[in-house]
Design goal:
By secondary structure, this protein is of the alpha/beta class. 36% of the residues lie in helices and 21% in strands. The chain has 14 helices and 17 strands. The strands form four sheets. A six-stranded parallel sheet has the order 2-1-3-4-5-6, with helices on both faces. A hairpin with a 2-residue loop joins β14 and β15. The longest helix has 26 residues. The chain starts with a strand and ends with a strand.
């Protein structure tokens, strides 16, 4: 039996695609082994979101070659797509697979047996079809990620992804529901809906060139994200539906109210922000203001009792002054996020931001990053303190041993991590408890 090893870099969408490629290999008779073991085939699903991601992708490809010089090395995903479009040859790789071609992994491996140096990279910007991949199991015992959408039409000035993932493409709702049903039968109780720009889900069924504001104005369209969530909500065995990341612009009174009426929907909303300063948001081409963002957060709090709102923020974006940074810091303080993922701006060749003047020095980025990290840690504690005394449901996921005592760890619907003693409990069990200090 041939052995295959896979390694994933980047986002949750990449993670889903890696699991789907593993399934394809298993169905073709491969034994899946750890990436650190000797294998006949190594598949690296690459990332190109930053120059650092490019470097990590190259490092993992080189590492695979060192692990077994005679193995077939497969480079897949965004780094491959970006290098192809730039006309740069990736050396030392046997099979190159761009985006929307991962479904052909097995056919390409078979082709390689006949012809060396196989390549499957297309002009992603003219792709209109969603690449059908699927999973019926996931590495996590209790939570399964489901890719519902690919591509992005937003063109933020710091982001390369629209160029390597192409325009928006949505998966048919009936195919998503079938996958959820398979996962439910396999014992999964929570599904996480993920995509490159999940808020655009369904828009291409109506008009792929439509802007998001128009799409949101057509709320109630048969194929929108709310429609999909309602269909998944009907699946027996699924106890939780979580959204991985959504645009603040998709939050309306009807959207928030409708979600609050679906008990399986987790009150955990990751609203991408990037900056709390309007002038910085304009340079980023983010299409909303801080005031509009705050309004959306308040809308969620109106319909959900104690929602966990999380976000991302970039510090040191080109041109960010001390005053602009302070505006963002004060805005984070005002909103009261549960968690904030802080990223130091990383120059990405091929984006508009990389050419912008007034690039912020690394030392200043590090200073601002630490200020926000300290603030966000305090805000996280404040949110968790607010959970004390509340009745919650915890989905137990892992067992850990400490000083001879077994504990189970899991997450509430708000995605707060909880630990309980293992007595009388099991993994993949939902338990009800009252949050305490310890």
């Amino acid at each position: 039996m041939k052995k295959a090893a896979l390694h994933n870099l980047g986002c949750k969408v990449n993670g889903y695609e890696t699991e789907a490629m593993q399934k394809l290999l298993e169905e073709d008779g491969y034994e899946i082994v750890s990436f650190h073991e000797k294998a006949d085939v190594y598949v690296i699903n690459t990332c190109t979101v930053t120059n650092i991601a490019d470097r990590k992708s190259r490092q993992m490809l080189h590492r695979a070659r060192k692990l077994n010089p005679d193995a077939v090395i497969v480079a897949a995903g965004c780094y491959v797509q970006a290098q192809e479009e730039a006309g740069t040859k990736i050396e030392g790789i046997d099979i190159l697979i761009g985006n929307n071609q991962k479904k052909n992994l097995i056919a390409l491996l078979h082709d390689y047996e006949q012809h060396e140096d196989v390549k499957a990279v297309i002009d992603i910007n003219h792709t209109g079809e969603f690449e059908e991949l699927y999973v019926d199991s996931a590495g996590d015992h209790t939570r399964a990620y489901i890719k519902i959408q690919d591509g992005c039409n937003q063109f933020c000035t710091y982001c390369i992804i629209p160029y390597v993932r192409g325009r928006i493409r949505s998966r048919k709702p009936e195919e998503i529901v079938k996958e959820v049903e398979r996962l439910a039968k396999a014992g999964y109780q929570e599904v996480v809906l993920t995509g490159i720009h999940a808020s655009s889900y369904g828009m291409d069924f109506v008009n792929p060139k439509m802007d998001l504001e128009t799409w949101v104005g057509m709320e109630g369209e048969k194929w929108d994200l709310l429609y999909l969530i309602r269909q998944i909500h009907k699946v027996d065995g699924i106890r939780r539906i979580r959204l991985s990341s959504i645009e603040p612009r998709i939050i309306t009174e009807n959207f928030a109210k409708s979600l609050s009426e679906l008990p399986k929907v987790c009150p955990h909303f990751h609203l991408s922000m990037q900056s709390g300063c309007d002038t910085t948001l304009r340079r980023m081409n983010r299409h909303y203001t801080s005031g509009e963002y705050f309004e959306k957060c308040q809308m969620l709090r109106k319909y959900f009792a104690y929602p966990a709102i999380t976000t991302d923020v970039i510090v040191g974006f080109p041109g960010e002054t001390d005053e602009e940074f302070e505006t963002t810091r004060a805005f984070i303080e005002k909103v009261g996020f549960y968690e904030t993922h802080v990223f130091k701006y990383s120059r990405r060749n091929g984006t508009k931001a990389a050419q912008m003047p007034h690039q912020v020095p690394d030392q200043e980025k590090a200073k601002r990053s630490q200020i926000l990290l300290d603030l966000c840690q305090r805000k996280k504690k404040e949110f968790e303190d607010g959970m004390i005394g509340r009745k919650v449901e915890v989905l137990l996921e892992e067992t850990v041993e400490r000083e001879g005592i077994l504990y189970r760890t899991g997450f509430t619907k708000e995605y707060v991590k909880v630990e309980v003693t293992a007595d009388g409990t099991r993994e993949n069990q939902i338990v009800e408890l009252t949050m305490g200090n310890e």
